[in-house]
Amino acid sequence: MNKKLKQLFFKGSNFLGAEFPIMGGAMTWISESNLVSATSNAGGFGVIAAGSMDKDKLEKEIIATKSKTRKPFGVNLILLHPEIEDLIEVCIEKKVDLVVFAGGFPKLRQIQKLKNKKIKTMCFATTVSIAQKMINYGVDALILEGNEAGGHIGPVSINVLVQEILPKIMEVPVFVAGGIGRGEIFLKYLELGAAGCQIGTRLVCSNESIAHNNFKEIFIKSEARNSQVSVRLDKRFPVIPVRAIENKASEKFLQEQKRVIKLLDTSNISLKEAQLQIEHFWAGSLKKAVIDGDIDNGSLMAGQSVSLVKKIQPVNEIISEIVKQAEEQITNEQRIS
Ligand SMILES: Cc1cc2nc3c(=O)[nH]c(=O)nc-3n(C[C@H](O)[C@H](O)[C@H](O)COP(=O)(O)O)c2cc1C
Prior knowledge:
Number of strands: 11
Oligomer: single chain
Number of domains: 2
Shape: globular
Bound molecules: flavin mononucleotide
C-alpha cells in the first residue's frame, strides 16, 4: 500500500483494530450478522444495528456474527430504545469490541460502565461543545455525520462539520460519515485530519446485505436528487428529519400531515393526539421496505451517495474499490508534485 496512505490509515485502523479505517454504518434491519461479519472480514469494521432488536435478539446476533468472523466488530445502540440498559448489559456479557451510541447523547454512567469493562465507546457529535462534553465523559471516538447521509439526520452537511468541528478535536479519533461513496473523497477527509469514515448507503446493495431485492433495485435506479429529507409542514409536530428516496409513502406523509393539521386547527383533536398520529405514520415502515420489499408504502432510507450505487456486489469488492480509489488518488498527486 502507498506509504502515505498507510500513515493516514494508522490512527483509525489502530483504534478499530481493522485493516482499513472504514466503518460499515449500522443500518436498522440491514446490519445483522451477514453484513457485519462480511464488512469486518473485508478489512473494514462492521457494526450491528440493535435499533430493532430486543436483548435476546441482540445476543443471538452477536453470537452469529462471532461465528462468521474472528475480526472485531461493534454494536450500535439507539439511546431511546426502551431496553437500552439491558442492551448495554448484553454488549458487556458478550464482550463486544465497541459500542456506538446513536439517537442522542450517552450519559456519563453509560460510557463509564462500558469503559470499566474495556469496551470502547463512540457517539455522534453535532457541535464542538457536544464533542467536548462527550470527550469529558470519556467517549473514545466521535463520528461527524453530515445530512447527506441516509436515515435519521442532523441539519448540517459534512462539508461544514469538517470545517467547524474536525480541526478543534485533537483528543480522540474522529470518523466522518454522510455522502461518502468513493475513495478520493475519503482520502481528502483523512488529509483534513479524520481518522476514518463510516459508510452506509454504499453497503445496502452488497450481496451479503439481507435487504429485499426490490429495495436494492430502487437504490441502483436512483439518483442523488431522489434522496430527499422528509418535509415537516408544521412546527408543532416534532418530526425527526429522515433522508430517504422519495416514493408514494413520502407523498402520503404530506397528505397525512395536512389532514392532521386540519383536525388540530378545528379543535377536533388535542395537540398530543395530533403529534401521536404524525409520529405513528412511519412506524414499522423501514422493515416494510427492507424486509418485505414494499417500496411504495415503506421507508426507503438512503443517502445522497445512492447515485454511486450501480450494482449488487460483494462487500469486499466495495471496500477494496474505495481503498483502491484513495490509493490511486494519492499516488497520482505524488506523481504530479
Ligand atoms: C437504511 C439505513 C438505516 C440506518 N439505520 C441507522 C441506525 O439504526 N443507527 C444509526 O446510527 N445510523 C443508521 N443509519 C446511518 C448509517 O449508519 C450511516 O451513518 C450513514 O448511512 C452514512 O451515510 P451514507 O448513507 O451517506 O453512507 C442508517 C442508514 C441507512 C441508509
